[in-house]
Structures are given as structure tokens and as C-alpha cells.
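I'll show one example:
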Amino acid sequence: MPDAIWVLSGWVGATAAAGLLCAAVARGRVRWLWLAAALLLMVAYDALLTRGYGRIPLDFGPSDWNWEGKTLAVLLSLAVAAWLGFRRSGVTLRHYRTGWPGALALSAVLVAVFLGLALYFPTEPADADTLAFQLTMPGLDEELFYRGVLLVMLNEAFGRPLSVLGAPMGWGALVSSFAFGLTHALGYSDGGFSFCPLPMEGNYDVVAAAIDTNGVTYNATIIFNVPPGTNLGDIGLVPESGASTAPGVIKGLVTTQDAASAATAADISLSALQAATPDGGGERKVTVPTFGESTLTLTTAASPDTLTCPTNTKCAEFTLNVPASNPRVGTFSNGSVSFAALPDPAALVNYLVNAVASIPGSEVKGTNCSPSSVTVDNLEDGTTPLTLTGGATSTAETVAFTGCQSGF
């Protein structure tokens, strides 16, 4: 059974269990057909949100986001709201006038909080596609479904015998909230359930690489635009065929200093990137799996025994063992993957190294230095592109962080 079906089973099953618990508290005063209808609606919602687990041939064009699945889910909610009654489902422009001041005040507080968090924990700049999606689809979809049609059905099942600040409420509000939280937290892989899986809003780029017991490297295969819940089956990898079948090695140095140009330490996360282009899209930088004793995390320190840090910095060396050929590129569309021609084995193999700085001991990445993310794409001379060959070592230019928090 595909993992996505296990997730669906766990989500609906746990919600049903929560409903049964509420039924026990309500002493059996439940309209069971409405509860069953709500659970069936969850199944239909999940099927459309995942585009039939990748089998519905609907494609709006290149995007990192699940426009298609969200659109189908919104259409489902609107269709059910039309059946239940739009106003009854909360799909109306009529509101109580006395509620506007409180609603506007709460909205202002929430905007301030999330804007502050975005400014304090900056990430990569958002493109127009990301902004358009995040400003529209998650709210439209989830409010219509969880706080609209699903809540109406669950209220029909359990009634609304409670009163909270004068508003009639029932066990349906708790069950719909439980379903909402669980869909953002439940995952399934390797034969067991887990929490905090991939969110359903976006499409994903799947990257696979390998090295066998003989030390032969299998170069990266990238599949772009894979929707959540898709079963890709076996992913074919291409073995290295050059003079050396061993990985290429990137070595380099990370330095950190504070805003006053004094040495300070930072936790650093490292990754190797290659550029690739999906069918019909623009070039993207994709994280490539590393092999063996690669340095994926480190903490800078004052002149370790093996090297001398540049003046007024703390530093650490890193090593990344990676495939030494350009990636094979595929694009998922309309339920299948189409691969481009294999890359020219004689072409230069260019890499980038990305480093993200965090406050020492913090579990939140990207909370330190200005900027908190630095990418280099040249050799140590600072001008020649960072290229690799199998079995050889290339030294990248120094990854230099400034503006880091002092006192470490």
C-alpha cells in the first residue's frame, strides 16, 4: 500500500476515533450518518488535494506550489457548501457589525506577529509565484474546508450544546480542529507513522544519488515538481563512467566574525548544490546528496590545531564528497516523469556550496550572522568556477560570515 494511503488511513482513522470519544462524552447523542459523511468528505478532499496521488492529469504549468491540488480542493468545498447552503457554511459577505472592531484588532496583531517573525528569521527571497500562492490558496482552501463544510457536517453529527462567550459550539469544533492539526503533522514511512512530515501546499524536487560497495558513484537524478503523495516507483541512477568512478571532493574553510569585526563562533550547516533546469521552467539550484565522511555541520573555533584562522575570525574546515558528473534531470507532469537527454560527460561539472549560520546550541537554523546564508561558487582564487572531477579534490573559496552574534 502506498505511503500516502497509509497517511490517509491514519488521518481519517484518528479523526474517527476522536469522534467516537466525543460520542462517548455526549452519551451517544450522535447523528451517525453525518459523522460518516464527514469522514467520507475527508477522503475525497485528500484525493483531490493530492491530485489523485499524482494520477489526475491536471497541470497549470511550472511551479513549486500545488496550485492544481488546492484548486480542486477549493472546488470540492464550494460544491459541498452549495449543497449545505453557502451562508450555513460560512461562505457569505454578511457579518455582524459589532464584530468588526475585534476582528480588525486581532488581524492587526497577527500580521504584526508574523511580520516580526519573518523579519527576525529571514529566509530566501520569495518569488512572485510563492507570494501569489501563499497569499491565496492555503487560506481559501483550509478555511472553506476545516472551518466551513467539515465543521458544518460535524456540528450536524454532534450538535452545538455548549456556549463559549455566547457562541454556540459543539464537539464538532474540537474534532475539526484535531483533523486540521493532524493533517499538518502526520506522516508515514519505513513501516511506521511519524509527525511533522512534508506539508501538502507545495510540489517537491526529489534528488537521489548513490555509491556502491565498490566505490562506484551513481550521479544525481533530479525529478522536479513532484506533488505530495506521489509514488515515483524505482528511480534509475546513472553510474559514473569517467576515468575515475570515485566521488569528487570539495574542501574549504568557513570563517565567522561579529559586527565589530571580532572573532566569534557560530554553528554552520553545509550543503552542495548543482544547477538544473526543469522542463518548461527556469534554472534552479538543487541540493545534492553527499557521501561518506562529509562535513554537514560544524562549529567554528579559534585556530584549531590543524590550521590558523584568518585574523579576527573563528574558523573550521569542511569536506563534501559528491557525485562528479552533472545530474540527470526529469520533470513530473500529468502523472508521469519525462527525462531530458543525459548530460554530456565531457561538460564541466560545476558546484556551489551553501552554508547557513545559527547561534551556537540553537536548534533553529538561520538565526545568526548577516546574512545568515552564504553561497560560494568559485575556487579558492575567487574567480575560477568551482568545478569537480572524479577522484580529485577542489578547494572552494572561503565561506565568510560577518555580523554574527558576539560572545561565543
Residues 204-404 form one domain. The longest helix spans residues 3-25. The helical segments are 3-25, 32-49, 51-54, 67-84, 100-120, 128-134, 137-158, 171-183. The chain has eight helices and 18 strands.
